[in-house]
Amino acid sequence: MSLQHEHEFEAAPGLPEALPLNEHVIWQGAPSATLLAMHALHMRKLALYFVAMLCVQALYLAGEPGAAVWPSVLLSGALACLCLLLLAGVAWYSARTTLYTLTNRRVVMRIGMVLTITLNLPLKRLESASVRSLNNGAGDLALGLKGSGPVGWLHLWPHVKAWTFRRPQPALRCLPHIEQVSALFMQAWTAENPQVSIQRGEAVAASDRQSAQGTISIQTT
Prior knowledge:
This protein is of the alpha+beta class. The protein is built from 5 helices and 10 strands; from the N terminus they run ββαααβββββαβαββ. Helix content is 34%, strand content 29%. Strands 1-5-4-3-2 form a 5-stranded antiparallel beta sheet. The chain has a 5-stranded antiparallel beta sheet with strand order 8-7-6-10-9.
């Protein structure tokens, strides 16, 4: 079972406890704030929505005799910009307070903007992993757990694979060099699970033709 605990102090960055003698850190990293804003918080889509609503407002007010079109549109535009600015702040702070760690035994996720928690995900307890490519070599690495997840989807968000509400899959989101991270993960996983076979596959997400998703299926032999 994956472990979860809250903490205030860290024995090392991203690690609430000192690692055992037979365990060492292979990689540490954090999500990109810009990519979090674009892909996890959907700022680009929200900005387009605001632009469309401002156009609708302007057209509606233009048909009303004596209506103050531009002051109303400018006020709505200022509120929309404030909303986007706050969302960008959430993305920045989320990236700043997050640290992902890969060791030769587990994946450790330090997450949480208000209440910091650490998820310990032993490599032996992972049944699947999937890579979603974004742009410029960035992407997500989602981890499928055996049995039920450690916490709910909302508690993990935005560090969770989309649409996995029943069985949330923790995800290392918006990493700048996803190919390097996924390769290190596979090396660590195969070393920790020598008795298990691995099948690789490629699929294209139906919702985004430009977003490729490579899936690693783990099956016991």
